[in-house]
Design a protein that fits this description.
The structure holds two protein chains of two kinds. Chain A is an alpha/beta fold. Chain A has a single domain (about 40-205), classed as Rossmann fold (3-Layer(aba) Sandwich). Helix content of chain A is about 35%, strand content about 15%. Chain A contains eight helices and seven strands; from the N terminus they run ββααβαββαβαβααα. Chain A is globular, with a radius of gyration of 19 Å. By secondary structure, chain B is an alpha+beta fold. Chain B has one domain (about 1-155): Beta Polymerase, domain 2 (2-Layer Sandwich), CATH 3.30.460. Chain B is about 30% helix and about 25% strand. Chain B has helices spanning about 1-10, 30-45, 100-110, 145-150, 165-170; strands at about 15-20, 25-30, 50-60, 65-70, 75-85. The termini of chain B are far apart. Classes of the chains: A alpha/beta, B alpha+beta. Chains A and B meet through helix 4 and helix 8 of A and helix 4 of B.
């Protein structure tokens, strides 16, 4: 892919006025992620965690074969909506990112872009053995082996593929983690940002986006 | 099928003819006459449809095999044309003028096997892999396991079991 859309260029308005555009500065914010501070009052923090665990909004982005398991989960057969879990069409409204199965390098680029656009606090749930050690695609030239080198993972659901029941168990576990105040993936990402970026840039060879795009 | 083959045998250098069944046949044609034969089959024999264009890497013979599967919708016949090209100088005449969809196959072959098709539209643009540098991954001398281990941070402690032995031990440990 060409990097033309990130290079400086001149565009013309309908009136013929020349406008200089530097996409990386004009279209994206240059700030890097920050660690969210916890409230010093335990009751407030507990209340926040309780509220967060009660409304997990999932981004409807199926990255691999596991996306097919989310359809029965959101429809009446398993009906995850009764637990306060619902699917959202945009990263701005979502706070759980379900990485459903294998990730090719091409998809990983979109996943990183999407993850960074989500509002904190945000959690990553990794499905299947592919995200743990590569699964059956462990020796493929095109799929990553370990997700935790590129994104902070809060909870893994093992299996190939995990059925919707295991996904529900995973959501239960995620809720428990959040209630105990251990859902800190987004803070880890901010703290170890350089390390994550260096890993991402090592395998994504045509990096044509800003370092942190939100 | 036999009549068609008898006809083209006199006109083009073909060999290794093999009839698989009434409707399918395989044949090999020389590289420089392959496109002529494809034009002939399309214009005069009714093989109007290109089903697939794909390649096989015969690293032992230092050759790539290109397979053009063409189909005659009226007679419901398939003909598989095999063309062997040199592996070192992997280059073939483009057939995007005959079938437009061939340009996409040729783009894929350029990326995955490194077979060049000069003048084919968008042939140098990345097809699936973004920013791939290095040996094309479908070549047989490309070591996909080594590449994966070097690139994708493999997790330690991955073990392999023979499923037959493993399940026998697990289900019937006494036997």
């Amino acid at each position: 892919m060409s990097k033309e859309h990130t290079e400086k260029r001149t565009v013309y308005s309908p009136e013929g006025e020349a406008i200089e555009v530097d996409p990386l500065k004009d279209y994206f914010c240059e700030d890097l992620p920050e660690v969210h501070k916890k409230s010093s009052i335990a009751v407030v923090e507990n209340f926040r965690n309780w509220a967060r665990s009660r409304s997990l909004w999932v981004l409807g982005f199926g990255t691999g074969c596991g996306a097919i398991e989310m359809r029965p989960l959101m429809t009446p057969k398993f009906d995850a909506y009764r637990y306060g879990i619902q699917w959202r069409p945009t990263p701005r409204q979502a706070d759980v990112f379900v990485i459903s199965g294998y990730l090719s390098v091409k998809t990983l680029k979109r996943v990183i872009r999407t993850y960074e656009q989500m509002q904190g606090p945000k959690y990553v749930m990794a499905l299947g053995s592919c995200t743990i050690n590569g699964g059956m695609y462990w020796d493929s030239y095109n799929t990553i082996n370990r997700l935790d080198y590129y994104l902070p993972v809060d909870v893994y659901v093992a299996g190939c593929m995990p059925r919707p029941e295991s996904l529900l168990a995973g959501f239960d576990q995620l809720k428990k983690i959040i209630r105990e105040g251990r859902g800190e993936g987004y803070n880890v990402y901010a703290e170890k940002f350089e390390w994550y970026k260096s890993n991402q840039k090592k395998i994504i060879k045509d990096w044509d986006m800003p370092d942190y795009n939100w | 099928m036999k009549e068609i083959i008898n006809k083209i045998e006199k006109l083009y250098p073909i060999s290794d003819f093999k009839q698989q069944n009434d409707k399918t046949a395989l044949l090999t044609v020389e590289q420089d006459k392959a496109v002529d034969l494809l034009i002939y089959m399309q214009k005069f024999e009714g093989f109007k449809h290109l089903a697939i264009l794909t390649a096989v890497d015969w690293i032992e013979n230092n050759q790539f095999q290109l397979s053009y599967i063409i189909n005659n919708p009226e007679l419901k016949m398939d003909l598989i044309l095999r063309v062997f090209i040199d592996r070192e100088k992997a280059e073939m005449t483009s057939i995007h003028n005959l079938w437009e969809q061939a340009a996409t196959y040729q783009r894929e072959l350029k990326e995955m096997f490194g077979i060049n098709f000069p003048n084919s539209p968008r042939v140098d643009k990345p097809f699936i892999l973004e920013g791939w540098d290095g040996l094309p991954p479908y070549r047989r001398d490309f070591d996909t396991k080594k590449y994966s281990e070097d690139t994708y941070f493999p997790r330690e402690g991955r073990t392999k079991n023979n499923p037959v032995e493993y399940m026998k031990q697990k289900l019937y440990p006494d036997e």
